[in-house]
Amino acid sequence: MTTTIESPRAPRTVRRGGVNWEKWGWIYMRVSGVVLVVLIFGHLFVNLMLGDGVKALDFAFVGGKLSNPFWQIWDTLLLWLALIHGANGMRTITNDYAHNRLVGVVLKGAILAATVVLLILGTLVIYTFDPCPAGSPADLLASFCTAG
């Protein structure tokens, strides 16, 4: 029994015109990976190394951080880049291992739906978070909030 391996120089099938989504997905993974390293290490450094370190992380710390527009944008970039990066990786795994077309479509649809829902919810939390909501009972508010 002999096995024939196709020559790596064999002519490829001609690709139709249009956007090469696989190429742009590959480029996105590299660029977003580099940016994510900076965002993640910046996030960890500020949260764990500056100030009082881990013991300073509490509701007040998060509330103060999310009230600053700089950190809102930082966290939004981190959220969006990480979720899309992860979803693109899952899409690639699905392309590699889902050999049935219907299964591939269902899995990629589920990945897309989960990503969109998490992006919307996460972005809403970042921009609408209020540690001291108006009209809340004083016993339910954090200690740094003024009742009233």
In short:
This protein has 148 residues and is mainly α.
SSE arrangement:
Elements: H1 21-49, H2 59-66, H3 69-97, H4 101-128
Helix pairs in contact: 1-3, 3-4
Q: How many distinct folded domains?
A: 1
* CATH-defined topology: 3 helical TM bundles of succinate and fumarate reductases
Please, how many helices?
4
Shape: elongated
What is the beta-strand fraction?
A: under 5%
CATH top level label: Mainly Alpha
CATH architecture designation: Up-down Bundle
Helix content: 55-70%
Taking the alpha carbons of the first and last residues, their distance comes to: 84 Å
Q: Could you list the spans in which at least 5 consecutive residues all have pLDDT below 50?
A: none
- Write down the Rg: 23 Å
The total strand number stands at 0
* Order of helix and strand elements from N to C terminus: HHHH
Report the CATH superfamily. Answer: Fumarate reductase/succinate dehydrogenase, transmembrane subunit
Could you say which structural class the secondary elements and strand pairing correspond to?
Answer: mainly alpha
Q: Average pLDDT across residues?
A: 88
Main β sheet profile: none
